[in-house]
Amino acid sequence: MRISQREKTGGDGWILALLLVVAFILITIYFREGSSGPLRTARQGVQAVLAPVGRVGFAATSPVRSVGAWVSDLGVSRSDLEALRQQNEEMRERLAALEEARQENERLRELVAFVEARELDAVGARVIGKPATLWEGVITIDRGTAQGVKVGMPVLASQGLIGQIVEVAQHSSRVRLITDQRSGVAAILQATRAEGIVNGSIEGDITLDFVSRESTVTVGDVVLTSGMGGVYPKGLLIGEVADVQLSDADLFPRISVRPSADLEGIEEVVVLVGAPVESDVTGGGE
Amino acid sequence: MNRLIPLVTIVVALILQVAIVPYVAIAGIMPNALLLATVTIALVKGPRAGMLSGFATGLLFDLTGTGPIGAAALVFCLVGFIAGSIQESTFSEGWLVPLVVVFFATLTAEVVYALVLAVLGEGGLSVAGVLGLALPAALYNSVLALLVYPWVARFLRSEKPMTTFRRLA
Lengths: 286, 169
What we know:
By secondary structure, chain A is α+β, with helices and mostly antiparallel strands.
């Protein structure tokens, strides 16, 4: 039979109280300090030290990632399969329409000057770290202040917007994905020009909120950044409407958005270093 | 030397958390190696070591993430203390106690951490978040505990050589 050792640990309560007070003080300092405060500086130091570790892990776990994706795909239901078939049919129809769009695209190429005029210079980066906790959608990339990356800059994959820089070290940065629950992107529906906010969630889904009830929203509508607020340049592709629900009790329609970029399998990104840097990063300082 | 062993355990857990854990996620559910280390240390060394290691692993968790620094230190410290206290008050030995303690410790820590983030205005907590993320993560950590607890406990109890899971636990 084990004999309790409480007699020996009588001071534990005091130590616990002390540690809890220290934790509260740290939280208070975090919210009151600026972007170059001691805690954020310490975090940047830890990030700089651990970035190579994450890079090694990314390379070493390549076979495991394939297995993980395979296990995840086992959950695809019959209804999902049916939906994919239907989507395939629709894609064939769209293919014909795309030829028309291609010719239009030729004309639109002239608008490339638009990008140059706004100095949307981009820096390519590799993803070297995936989200390491349940509650945040943050990846690490291998570009930092040495390459001109700053907090607040938008990050894109080839398929569209994926997020925004939230932490920067000399040779690495952290990108908050648009699926993160703290992410919010001013957005616009391409077809109707209705404006709203694309918000992330705990579950990693994204929704388009605060769109007027009067707006007509249909599944498949393309969602773009609106440029409002100056955080993201206008016209970046976010995704398309996956589901719309509107009941009499709702002030706004509930619009689910399917991100155009594959946020889980992403390996290369570009950082818009020429974009206006007006961060919506919370936590003070920025 | 014995004082360094929990430190080594925490450093190894940190490396695993950063380098391996993100890539063994199943459908977005991932274990928490730092929390697993905290609970293991608490179960082997008692509440004082549990809360001290919990504070350290929580602080590392905060520094490697993007949330408020101090939030996880607060939660892990409490969880380490409670896990150590449970170990002190439990007469049962074997594989079931660490398994159950790791499950409830992970569930509690993840939910309370999300709650702290919500209170601080850095996130939200929903039933879907608890059922869809925290609960599966607790199960994942429990399965991992089944695999690694005997070996980590042996490492931490190097002064008491043991050979079976029952004796280790």
